Amino acid sequence: MRTPAAPDRSRFRVLVVEDDDTIGRHLETGLRSHDYAATWSRTGTGALAEATHTSYDVLLLDLGLPDVDGLDVARTLRARHPGLLIIILTARTDDIDVIAGLDAGADDYLVKPFSLTVLLARLRAHLRRRTIASPRQQPISIGDLVLDTTARRCLLHGKDIPLRPKEFELLAVLARQAGAAVSRETLMAEVWDENWFGSTKTLDVTMAGLRRRLTHAAEASARPA
Ligand code: CA
Predict the structure, then answer these.
(1) What's 145's domain CATH number?
(2) CA 62 / ligand 1 centre spacing (Å)
(3) Please, where are the H alpha helices in the chain?
(4) How close is the Cα of 70 to the center of ligand 1, in Å?
(5) Do 149 and 194 lie in a common domain?
(6) Is the pTM here over 0.85, yes or no?
(7) How many A from CA of 113 to the centre of ligand 1?
(8) Are 42 and 84 part of one and the same domain?
(9) Which tens digits make up the pLDDT trace of 97-152?
(10) Separation of CA 122 and ligand 1 centre (Å)
């Protein structure tokens, strides 16, 4: 059995934003017992304040908060901290809520109820991917599109196209194998979790977002100035 090297989790700071006492305490305790530095906030306002004086690696964010909309918290913290890993915890299972969450800057989501084991596996996969030091790589060019995987920039005709982290990773995998068919399984394994056997809806949603952004950028650049 392959056992990938685990990143040093003790240095990962996780901010849990959850107004449900049972879930919040369970997450805080569970994360701490697995060597994460976890802090629990019951409100969105408290989380925003907390994130201004401490630098977090991960945000576990409940969407239904008593004071502000969780989506606003995601948007605000995504704008302030581009490298923050944001995982939405939601009881909302409608596609529209998932899309709204991902569009607000979340990298991933878990639908309640979920087990601590699943959350920990998801965290390990995300953090391992971020921890793997990638050597300086040459930008990938496909036609007028340039993908700089080191600087994490996507340019069309020299203009930046803002992409969410998962959209960027998805495009990078596809760009490296340009012209070849890439299976859903490969994409899920490369961009999400090698142990992911669940729904691939998150892939569809991210792919749709990526297509939308690239199409908008292409249309904007084709328009006469
Ligand atoms: Ca809630």
Answers:
(1) 1.10.10.10
(2) 6
(3) 21-33, 44-53, 70-80, 95-103, 116-131, 165-176, 184-187, 201-222
(4) 9
(5) yes
(6) no
(7) 12
(8) yes
(9) 778 888 899 999 898 889 999 999 999 988 887 765 444 567 888 888 898 887 78
(10) 21
